[in-house]
Each structure stands twice: as structure tokens, then as C-alpha cells.
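Hey,

Quick one before I head out. I ran the complex with 2-(butylsulfanyl)adenosine overnight. Inputs first:
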Amino acid sequence: MNQRISELRQLLEYHNHKYYVENAPEIDDFTFDSLMRELQDLEDAHPEYADPDSPTKRVGSDLTREFQSVEHIHPMLSLSNTYSREELGEFFDRVEREMGPVEYVAELKFDGTAISLIYQNGRLLRAVTRGDGVRGDDVTANVRTIGSVPLRLRGEGYPDFFEIRGEVLMPYASFEGLNAERAAADEQPFANPRNAAAGSLKQQNPAVTASRGLDCYLYFLVGDRLPHTTHKQSLDAVRSWGFKVSELTTVCHTRDEVFDYIDRVDELRRSLPFATDGVVIKVNDYARQQELGFTSKSPRWAVAYKFKAEQAETSLLSVDFQVGRTGAVTPVANLEPVQLAGTVVKRATLHNADQIAALDLRIGDMVYVEKGGEIIPKITGVNLEQRSADAQPLEFITHCPECGAELVRPESEARHFCPNSRQCPPQIVGRIVHFVSRKAMNIESLGDETIALLHSAELISDVADLYTLTAEQIARLPRLGDKSAANIISSIAESTKVPFERVLYALGIRYVGEATAKSLAKHFGNIDALMAATPEELAETEDVGERIAQSIVDYFADAENRQRIEQLRTAGVQMISARSSAKSNSLEGLSFVISGTFAGHSRDELKALIEAHGGRNLAAVSAKTNYLVAGDNMGPAKRAKAEKLGVQIINEEQLIDMLGEPANSQNSTSMDEDLQQNVKKIEKTAVQGSLF
Ligand code: IVH
């Protein structure tokens, strides 16, 4: 028994670290929770093996070395959770046995990462991650970039100093965009929006966080002398101070109303713009909450009901091996189409050879497919009972399916690569597709198919060839007339105006994504300085580590790559950063729509400010918009559209706040002193052992 207990403790510690520190979970929540439950049951049955350091005694830790670690004013506890309605019934029984009938508040369980915000005199003072529950990481500079977090409060009645908690999350629209970008830069995509949100908060450069399209919902006002008597009153007040509180939060008078709420949310969550993994139920009345109190880990007045990730069983028909622009080979499973969470699933990613081996997959197997917070479905297991005796293990291919070259697997990589980058068609076409993509050279009129067509007609085999194409050559191709040929030529010519940092990203240097390209352009200013840089000089750039530095050096060491740069330079493509003319680059990469009238500036003034700080103005709200700056008299349709697309809505003040540089370390020292004094003040008045 003792052996199983220590085994479970070790296993849970391992997965805690994967989840909170590395943002790369290996098991799903349900499996994690089941292991935790098994350990808790064993510890309950065998108190002789109790250990204060057991994973059951603490909340997981997300502490990392790079951020200043600060102590929470009130410990950040977790919630006890359940996947069964029966157990939820037991929660109601326990509460009502002690309290008699009570009111509950039912709300969404947001699937993001917890944040504690501290406000002083109506201004955001500090933002801290949960960490180990006692200490967290100070991520204030990053949180300041999230449009829905008010930097200054509005309305009235807020305490001079208070803490509020909520969840930072990444809407699906931002998540999909980010993963597409990461795939384009040959970076590992995030497993789900939750990890993407957590990873985005732990960026050293706040501009990167700002570009990630995060959102923040608040659900818990913490304090010892709150001006309200119920949780719901607090939430309504909090909303009036400018915080984002879900409109779906509802008071329930009976447990049946809570069960109805759960059913509704289970239905609705498929059409929400962000991930929810359950419903949180809280006792509404603060006096009742105080009477119920806490266990060492969680409040006794609240519980989380979690939805199980939906699963379907279907058969594995075949596996395709796709070759990307970097030569990376990705296995993709073709499945017998099956209904799952509202869509028909036909394909699932298999990541790499290790995963195929870990699942021990065979063609014809009945496999379990899951779609949790993830967008792309994944295979989570095999139904071995259904396996036929002669099923053959799935072999990973040894040669490129496109060009026949022998695949290689570098030691540090989980993936196989086709090394024939010069001649392998999907690699050539993939590089050009990346070059013309929206965030790179933005040559809109050149679609993937046209590029493949131009390549097979032997008109292009490299990005530099685009600039020597003629309209006559293009017009001769099937399905392309004079008009589209002229369009293509003019958008290629237009692309010579694209700023240097995007050219750098467009080159497709391995591991150089958008953010890194920006940092490099800022640091070096032009291509010649970058080409001459040593690995040590490169590593001085923000966001550039050894691996990226080496990849850049390797790229420029290649004569063919240097020749390409010269051809592009001759064609007029930007090789010098034009950044210096802007007043700052604090809005770099962000796009805005201005709507309504404003107290402090005219619309044109605001637009000019956005441009002067590196941002872009758009005429209408679309999925490309990062922020809608809402003034008075803005039409409701615009707001509804922004909400539907997950576009962040900010006011004039928040925009002005974004223009300034994030607080530097000197400022934060004095803030810390302020904070320390307030913490002392609060500690003096706090009721011992209680949150209120
Ligand atoms: S209340 C003392 N409300 O779930 C309890 N938490 O499993 C404070 N979460 O750490 C938490 N949605 O990160 C609360 N509506 C909600 C929530 C919520 C998501 C997260 C939060 C918490 C975790 C506990």
C-alpha cells in the first residue's frame, strides 16, 4: 500500500511540473484528477502514511525562475472538483445539512490560468500568477497588455485597496492564429488554449504577450471588509468598475436550478468563443461562506463540476505522412468519420514516431478520439479487445513520400525530416507559401494552388524568382488570365514596401517566428549587421537563445541563402528597419478599429497616435482586429461583432495606457514598497484564518 502511495505521489509531482512549469501536459485533466483521487482515498484510509509534502496537500505550482516571486496576500487555494452529479449532490447535502437551504451562484469554469490582481486607488498595482498557492510570479507588465484588464477603474464604491481574482484565457480565435504562426515558424504548437494562455503570461517581452490576444474574466473579489453581503452583489459591482464578468453567472435557488444550469452550459459551451471545462458552484452569502470555512486546500463553500472530455470510438483506416516546408514529417491518421462534440472527425494528428509507438497503433484498430480544449482531435488510446490477431504494428516511413530521399531524425528532435530541402517539392512550395503569407510579405493574390502551378511550370523554385516573373508568363498558365496575372504582378511589386522585420520573418529561418524577427530587426536594424553577427551577439537579442542564434548563423553561412538575400535586395525588398521614425513601437503588430466619439481626442488624433506607435488602423471589425476602441455612441452591432469574434474591447484610457512603455524595474520597486505597507495594513485587520 505504502508503495502505491509513494508511486502516486511521484507520478503526480511529475505531471504537476509538466502542467504548471513546462506548460506541456502529458495526460489529460481527467486522468490527473483520477490519480489524485486515488491518492487522496489511500491517504484517507491510511493516515499512518500522511505526509505534509504530498501532492494532495498543495495546489500545483507554476513558479518559474525568470519572474520575481512574491507572496500572495491571501493564499490562492484550489477548488475541490467532481465529474459526477451524484457527488455534486453530496456537496449540496453537506452544505445544506450545516446551513439549511441556501442560495448558490453558478458560473462558468474558465479553462485558462488563474491570476490575482491588486488595485490601489483605482489603479492596477500588481498581477501575480497562482504559483504554488503561497507565492506566485509577478507578471504585472504582461497583464497590463491585456485589453480587458482595466488599468484604471471606473464607477464608484471600490475599496481603496483590494484583490480580485480571475482567469486569463486565450479565445479559440487567437489560439488558432497563434498555432498557425507557430507551425509556420516550425515551433511546437500549444496543446490547448489553457497552456497557450499560461505560456503567453510568462513571456519576458510584454509585446509578445500583447500580440497573443488574451482575455481576462474575473470571478472572485477577495478582501476582509467588502462593501457587499453576497458574492453576486460583489460581481455586479465589480462589473460596474470596468472588469469583465461573465453574463452567464447566475443565482440558483435550488439544486435543480444548478443542474439545469449545468445542462445549459454543457450545450452552450460549444458555441462560446473560449474554452470552459465545467461549472463552478459557490454559496452566495458571505456570512454562510465564512461559517463553512476552508479545508487546507480549498473552500468548503464552493465546488467545481467538470465536464469530461468528449470521446468517440472509431477505426483507424490509414496514416498519411505530410512533409512541411522545413522537411518535418507529420503523421496524420485517417479515421472512419465519426461525430464528436458537434463536428464530424475524419483526421487526427499523431505528432511523431514516438507517439505512434507509445499508442502501439495498428491499421484497422478501433481507437479513442478526444477533443478537449484542443481544436485538433487526438487519438488517446486503442480498444485492444477489438484488435484482430493478425494486426501489424504501424511502421514509420523511412523515405520521403514526396521525393524519395531517406529521412533523418536529429538526436535532439522527436520528429523525422526529409533532408532534401532543395528539391523536395512540398518544401519548395511550402517556403514560398510561407513567404507570401499574410504576416510575412502579404502577397494576397498568390494562393497555394497558384504557387504549386508556377512551380510545376518551372517558373519559380525560390522566393526570389517571384520578383522576376512577368505577366505574360503567368497569363499562359491554365486557369489564369491577363487580369489575375496583372493582379499578381502588382501585389508582388507592392510587397517591396513590407517592413524589414516582416521580410525577416518571411525568409523562413528556422525558429525565427514573428516575435523573434521583430526583436532581431529592432536590435540589428538591417540585414548586413544581422548577417555579420556572431552567435554571442545574436544571443544578446531579446528572445534569442543559443538554439535560435545557431540557426540564424547556419542560415547565413549558406551561399544559396546569401545569394537569395542579394536577389531580394536588388528587387527592392526592404532590408533596413524603418522603425526609427515611429514614436515608439509599443503597438507593433496590433490592429485597431476606432468607433464612436471620445472625450480626450478626436478619432483622427487617436488613429495618428496608433500609427505613430507602430499599430495599424482597420476600417471594420474582423477576425484580424486585435482591439476595438469603443467611444460614446458606438453602435451595438459593432460591439456584438467584436464580442462574437473575441476581439478585445477597450476604452480611450486603456488605449493611451498601452502607448506608454510597461513599468520598468525602478517603478516596480517603489510599487512593491507601497504594496508591502498595504499588506501589513491588511494583515493587521484580517480575521485570523479567514479570507474575509
Ligand atoms: S473560484 C477559492 N471560479 O479553477 C476558490 N475558480 O480548480 C477560488 N477557475 O484556481 C476560485 N473558473 O483558476 C473560481 N468561476 C470560477 C473559475 C475558477 C475557473 C479556476 C481557477 C481555480 C481553479 C480551481
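Residues 661-692 have pLDDT under 50 and may be disordered.

Talk tomorrow,
K.
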